[in-house]
Amino acid sequence: LSLKRNKSAIWKYFTTCDADVTKVVCNICQRVVSRGKDLGHLTTSTMHNHMHYKHRNVAGIRSTQSSRRSQPTPTPPALLPFAPLVFQSLQSEALDQPNHPLTQTITKIVGEMICVDLLPYSFVENKGFCKLMNVMAPHYTLPAGIHFSNKVVPQLHQRVKTKVQESLENIEGDVVHCTADIWTRKFSTSSYLSLTGHWFVQNISEGGEVTHKRTSALLNMKVIDTEYTPAEILQHLQDIVEEWQTMVPRRFTVGFFVTNNTCNMVKAMSDSGFEHIRCMAHSLHLIVTGAIEESHGVVSVINTARQVTSTVHVSNKAIAKLHEIQEQLGLAVASLIHDVPTRWNTVLLMLQRLLEQKEALMAMSTEMDLGGSFSEHQWTLMEAVVKVLEPFEEATRTVCQDDTSISSVIPCIQALRAALNELIANKDVGDLLETRELVGLLQSHLEEHFQPVFETPTNTYFKATLLDPRFKIMPMALLSKLEFERLKAAVAVEVEELLEQDSMPSAGEAGSSSGVGQESEGTSSKPTSLFWGAMQSLTAHNAASLSKTVTSSGLLETYLAESSMQSLDSDPVISYWSAKMSQYLALAQVAIKYLACPPTSVSSERLFSTGEDAVAPDHRLLPVHEPQLVFTKYNLKSVWGFLFMLGCH
Hints:
With 649 residues, the chain is α/β, with parallel strands linked by helices. The chain folds into four domains: 2-65, no CATH class; 157-279 and 601-646, Nucleotidyltransferase, domain 5, CATH 3.30.420; 283-451, no CATH class; 460-595, no CATH class. It contains 27 helices and eight strands.
């Protein structure tokens, strides 16, 4: 034993037990550590481990690590310049003090992790997590789950709520547009009602430059009974709105309410007094699924596609065989895609993947039963169906983007109309009876679902389109001269009301059309496709006829007379109206009021999605905990940008 003491520096921290030489006592914490049972094979490994995990901050411990056979301590990731310093700080004995700043920071970050990952509070008591924390911060005492549920997370929730309130207090135009959605978990008696708000925040730099930021936040998520009625839905929504109106008086006015087309939601909105905007993404879903269901030839191909996809999905042998053939043929190794009933575009993705793997599937069908097979006509029909559905998929993606507003609704409808007309003239599509029928059904359903959009020339859709510099002349092409004048007059009334309210300069003082025009930015940077080709043609045609149809007198006319063109994929508020605030403030504020409203309720629906951005509650969470956690998670990302996760408190 004396030789071992001379060979290893670790012995200055331990003393051999007099009663049992196989055990030693730590001179620092007096803990007894075993060195093994065989007197002929006693080691110092457990002593090194004890010092490594419990007393790493003791001077000299790092030098003793070089003699250990175990793996060296991993270098902390250099995510931040001060990461090594933080890693060393976690080993500090100061963490024994509950009020130490680093102790409190660790506790806060664990609370953020619970919210961001929607974990049950009992997670902090799991053995694996406790072991990890014991290694990373051995002197830190991890609080029990009840401490996080009663104190840490509620405090974080309140800080995030305050941040949302601060954003609402700086809102542009005092208008918040709302989206709502309801989600019901399978085999549950509880449903979840979410309400999100959308607005612009104005920032003015020291040099006086005005910029805007598009902002959205989850205002609340409520647990409701699955047997809800329209009246109950409306009452819950009104309660949430009134709560925020109390917190942000005189700044929180509901503009438009966007929801899906379900009967309960439509009925609730009709009784609410709010102006209801029907979710365009849901309308496109109903249009496409309705047309497909009525096209029997297309349904037959889709059913066969489902059979083949399902057969391969449920068989490990089939999956392995598919991948083997893909490698042999030099194709991309990819799995087949199964469609989801609530997402029409998954039908398109399923057909596209089958066409990509056509050669592999045909080779595979000679060796095993795929549950179905395609004739050459069906393969041809599948290709044509994909061409027909692609414009609708692009329209769906366009309206679901975070920076899209209701001003895109009419242009998208017009682009779809033009794309369907062009498809009829396409030989690959027009020569097939099934796809001619499908295109006709899509045209019929498109007109039926969006008829209300075109019924009133002074409605919200036309106003928003007129106030979007990318599409401002499109209403003129769709309306009679008299209707177009009525539309301009309706917008002018709102501008005048704002001028009178704020005592702003009159239209004549806002500046003339000279020097207002900007160089053309091009119509779009998006890739060429049938849908976007139609959209570019529409905007180019409108721009060409611009100078012939408007005059340059008055505030609105000055705006309409500008010959500049904006990129189709730009945000009109950020790219255009922010720069125009000093020139004609009232018109810009009216424009922002309309352009802040999204055309879909996707932001509310995504809270419960099963995709990449899922915020679907963990099945182990109690319903009473879920609203608070989901609110904090969503708004940490959307409003606060995950500053907490970087330690920027």
